[in-house]
Write a structure and sequence with these properties.
327 residues, alpha+beta, Uridine Diphospho-n-acetylenolpyruvylglucosamine Reductase, domain 3, Enolase-like, domain 1, four-stranded antiparallel beta sheet, binds flavin-adenine dinucleotide, binds iron/sulfur cluster
């Protein structure tokens, strides 16, 4: 597999990046660490002739206070134990992304916008050609749910559920200026595995902001994957909240790795507020979340198994959040 030629652009400010994105509309991708995009390019998946590298845009780098720049490397976050200790679900998620080598290049912004995955899509050009391609690249049919004209590729980033459970916001820059909204609103819940995000043309993610109340909340991120030292999540469950005398006074739960976008379940967690989370209540919560998710068989583990594990991982995440275990 090889990389086809592309033209690389290296703007140095957010304004210049937005301007360039406008000029190259529809013909470029942003390049952060490249750990997701470039392997996809090598497989000839939806190539663009231009790449806008974000490496030289100073404003996007670093993390401080409650702000994490989009170009902050996962390894840099991982190395800052004092920062991560304030956000246990984020700490779990960062440490479980891929391998140390991937985390050395992979960024927070790239992780939030990682391409959705499917074993009919993440394949070489020739492999895909032998099946006549699919809706997500070069083709006009879905091999997973052939009756439907939509894509079921799975959102497989680790950070999004953790940041959603922490109620974090994402800062976006684009042709109409800057805006901020919850991380969950980055994902197009009305879309599918192709139309996966709500970013408007030319917009980029500048930073993630954690709310002051998120620091030192209890929480966990529990990840199901085949090879614990390497793989994408087959399921990721994040919880964050506040327990007062055994009662829940605040709780959020987000799930990734089973649908085309990560999801929060506020109506279910709100019902636990002001209650002690008894075994029965937690079991009912896990079972209801499992009933609502829609995994399909397009990743390594069977959809039914992933769905059943949702209930198990919700119980585990809540139990460990309530009684924190040493890292
Ligand atoms: C072997 C392997 C294992 C992996 N395992 C995992 C895993 O377990 N969990 C996991 O979450 N990921 C995993 N990944 C995927 C990937 O490495 C990470 O998600 C990484 O954090 C992506 O960041 P990046 O900076 O390399 O993104 P890139 O590859 O540079 O970009 C990814 C996408 O985001 C867009 N983008 C990047 N930054 C911005 C921005 N600021 N604004 C707008 N668009 C932007 C790019 O255009 C591209 O579409 C794995 C990858 C590999 C190769
Ligand atoms: S879910 Fe269907 S359309 Fe989407 S990537 Fe897989 S095979 Fe292609």
């Amino acid at each position: 597999m090889h990389l086809d030629a592309f033209e690389l652009h290296r703007p140095t400010s957010v304004d210049a990046t937005v301007r360039l994105a406008g000029e190259l509309a529809g013909r470029f991708d942003f390049l952060a660490g490249g750990t997701d995009l470039l392997p996809n390019y090598k497989m000839h998946l939806n190539l663009k002739p231009h790449l806008i590298a974000l490496e030289d845009v100073g404003e996007l780098h670093g993390h401080a206070g409650d702000r994490i720049g989009a170009m902050c490397r996962l390894a840099d976050l991982e190395a800052d134990a004092a920062f991560l200790d304030r956000y246990p679900p984020l700490a779990d998620a960062v440490r479980e992304v891929a391998t140390p080598l991937v985390r050395a290049s992979g960024t927070v912004g790239g992780n939030l916008l990682v391409e959705t995955r499917c074993f009919f899509f993440n394949q070489s050009y020739f492999w895909r050609a032998s099946l006549g391609f699919c809706l997500k690249a070069d083709g006009d049919q879905c091999h997973v749910v052939p009756q439907k004209e939509r894509c079921y590729a799975t959102f497989s980033g680790d950070l999004a559920p953790a940041l959603m459970a922490l109620d974090a916001e994402v800062e976006i820059a684009g042709p109409s200026g800057r805006r901020r909204h919850p991380v969950g609103a980055l994902y197009d819940t009305a879309g599918d595995g192709i139309q996966r995000v709500t970013l408007r043309p030319g917009e980029l993610v500048v930073a993630v902001h954690l709310p002051p109340g998120a620091a030192h909340q209890r929480g966990r991120y529990k990840k199901l994957r085949v090879r614990p030292s390497y793989d994408f999540p087959e399921l990721g469950v994040a919880v964050a909240g506040v327990w007062d005398d055994g009662r829940v006074s605040e709780l959020r739960l987000a799930v990734g790795g089973v649908d085309p976008h990560p999801r929060r379940f506020d109506d279910l967690t709100d019902a636990l507020v002001d209650h002690a989370p008894s075994e029965e209540r937690v079991r009912a919560l896990g079972e209801e979340v499992a009933r609502r998710v829609r995994p399909v068989h397009n990743t390594f583990l069977q959809a039914d198994y992933r769905r059943r594990m949702v209930a198990v991982y919700v119980r585990r995440a809540l139990a460990e959040a309530r009684e924190p275990v040493a890292a």
